[in-house]
Amino acid sequence: MRRNRPAWFAFARALACVAVVFAGACAMMPGAATRAVSPRPTLRVSELAQEGDARRRASTRLVLDGLESETRGSENEALARYEDALKVDANNPLASLALARFEIFAGDADRGLAHLDRYAALAGGRDDAAAHLAGLRGAALAKLGKQTLAAPYLEEARALAPAVWADARLEAGELR
Amino acid sequence: MATSRYMRRRGGWLAGIGWPLRAGGIALFLASAALGGIAGGQLVQLDRIVRERFEGTLFRVPSRVLSAPLILYPGLDFELIDLRGTLDRLGYREASGDSLVLGRYRWSPRELRIHRRAFEHPSRAEPARIVALQLSGRGIEGIRDLQTKREIGALFLEPEQVGAYYGPDREQRELVRIEEIPQQMTDAVMAVEDQRFYWHIGLDFWRIGGAMAANLRARSFVQGGSTLTQQLMKNFFLTPDRRMKRKLQEAAMALITEARYEKPAILEAYLNEIYLGQRGATQIHGIGEAARFYFGKPVRDLSLSECALIAGLIQSPNGLSPHRSPAEAQARRDLVLRLMLQQGKIQQDQFAEATAEPLRVATVTPDLRDARFFLDALRRELPNYYGEENLSAEGLRIYSTLDLRLQRAASRVVREELARLEKQSRFLAPKGTQRLEACLVALRPQTGEVLALVGGRDYAASQFDRCTQARRPAGSVFKAFVYAAALEPASGAPLITLASALDDAPLSVPVWRGTWTPQNFDHEFHGVVPVRTAFEKSYNVASARLAQIVGIPRVREMAQRLGIESPLPNVPSLALGSGDVTPLELARAYATFASGGIRPRVRTFEDVIDARGETLERQSIEFERVLDSGTAFLMTSLLEGVVEHGTAAGIRAAGVAGPIAGKTGTSNEYRDAWFAGFTPEMVVVLWVGFDEPRSLGQAAAQIAVPIWARFVKEASGGDVAGIFPVPGDVAELEIEPTTGAIALDGCPERRAEFFLRGTEPVETCPQWRGAPTPPPLREREERPSEEPQRQRRREDEEPGLIERFRRWLEEG
After folding, report:
1. Which site from A33, A174, B153, B679 is most exposed, i.e. has the minimal number of CB atoms within 10 Å?
2. pTM
3. Residue A95 in contact with residue A121, Cβ under 8 Å?
4. Is 3.40.710.10 the CATH classification of the domain at B402-470+582-607+616-727?
């Protein structure tokens, strides 16, 4: 024999269902925190040095020179090299990526985000760039004081490239 | 008692001398004392003058503006960039023998070897290096450092001087320290001007005696006996006249200077001060500047024969100029070398080698007259504390963004094309002092660097910069902002896609003083037309109607967001470009489309360096995303259509191939002709008109487009490189052109079209379900647009959170 339940029980059950559906939907929304990701190869500029036409290769070479200068501690020289890389090939995504990294860690995080945005527009679809995209965005947001927003991005970067992003930083040598 | 004692004492030593003699003696004594006092006072004053000069600012050095360095890299067309001409202007010379000494190059069909000089740069300092460029056809295939045997990605050549901020005296000098000056330079100068410099005390009595004897023999002034120190005093403080008073002052000051300062300090001052020639209206002072002017290189790199030539010029810089009188200059050089040999400064073999060297001087490169608009724009961009006084005296080096090759091409094209236009039509011919004017500004969209700027046809006639200071009605160039506002999914779905249709039927918009009824250029109406056609053919009525749908405030906001800073009127005619804007603003706004929605900060310089080499200012690349990349790409695609099929098709007819996007603009009564366009790597805005507005008699397609096309053709060689990359949020579909439906198999007509993802059409051809109808306009047409627009909620904008969540769920 079925027992009649009170109205509040039906209401609570409906509420629970809505909460479950909403939580599920939130989890699927883009940018939502912890997605299940597994480590994958990360982009290194030196591995892409031979990609593209002669102009692109010359531009990428300048990016590499800049990363080398940064490793030596010559930051001004590095910045000039990245900007030169853009002058040689304005649409070289690696120049934008290097500038984004430079600005986020050594300059202006807002400017870095703009460079990152440009990188994403030029080459955002690359699978091996996902870790750097997430990590740099997280690092920039953290530098801007938006720790809550930064955390999921940094977590994603760590999950994608634990060897590189474990310390929430991307060194010039690691990008090189 | 006292009196008698005094008298007695005086009487003692003057005893026996009569009173007239005594009085005369006293007078002589007093006169001598007075003269001595005056002379002493004069000496004290001269000493103060000398000290003030030597211990204060010794020289006023104009700040110089340098171009962007030329970057050579594999893939570059060396003919296009005029590499040989650039090397020549920089003072590089073709090597004659086997050795490739510093500053020389050797050009063979397959290879160019350069012994590139070291150069200073705040962030791109380069050591000297020998490099080999592998050539193929017109292109550079590779670059190799011959010392390290390594391939290098890019080679930088020294920046060229664009101009300088002179004081009223227009003296240009490059200061050099005595340690930087080669010994053979000082030896050459002393050999010919003052061989006992290190032995005299400021005056060379032996030489003065010799000069006096020579002058007496000739019974006129044929020879001077001035030392370097005397010459320096004359140049620093005195006039060149030969009066005794001036000569005495000169001698006294020379003695004071020698007593106070060391010989090397005096020599350094002399070598930096001496006048050595003329470049147009600019005086060349000092051996540093002379080395650059005559040989295009720093003084430390001068050869013996070059040192001798400069030393020889001191006597008569213009009469012995190697540019004007090469034979006389060479004879004088050889004389200096002979004196050096006689004085034991050089050996016989050095003498023989140096005199055998042919006279080779750099091409005279006068300050670019047409770059003065750029120099003025740069000065305005510098912070206020770089006043005119500082700029003309502090010897700053300003590393600009200017591409000298493009600047030269822009100046030439503007000048020649305006002259051509003036002959072509009576509308364009000069009337009184009113001549046809133009301005051209070129930017690199991704970095905001100003690559070329020509603010008018003749700086000497008018310094008014029409690129940065003139606000003129934008005409149809402004329509791009209307379409961008309509295409942007700023908050919700965009109002149109590129497959939409617009109604080009009569339109009346009530305005404050009646009704505004826009007309098309051909005075016809074209009915329902695709968005692309309306934009490419620049239909006014369809565009004005679209602006009404979008809302004028939103159009204004879009223009301002993209980079327009001039005040814009809140009137319906804004859609057709009734607002006044500057060409530079338009360039910035179009650069935002070209760089995928990222608005760059426009900059004319990168670094400002002081005389000690310290960086005072640095401008990095700065930009901000102000438009989503998808909308920016759709606009680029629309603008490409204008060049392919629309009002700017003349660009293709002029022989320019490759990706180009742009928009023509003609203001009311043909008063202004514009073309704002871009390639993947350069935005160029061109304006043509009269300063006192009057009709040009023709549209922009006839006036502005040919000039723009010629400039871009010269800049690119006629084949524009690169692509406009398609961003990830844009999809390409085949559609049926008249209806905008997706074209399936069996659809009779089709063309490719771009859509923001999520805005693709749902209708299909052949099973299409009817043409999209233009949005209803009646309601908005009835509202006068001059009234402040009230905030309103529309179905197609600002959907609520629930609605957005619902759409997201629907889209999966």
Report:
1. A33
2. 0.80
3. no
4. yes
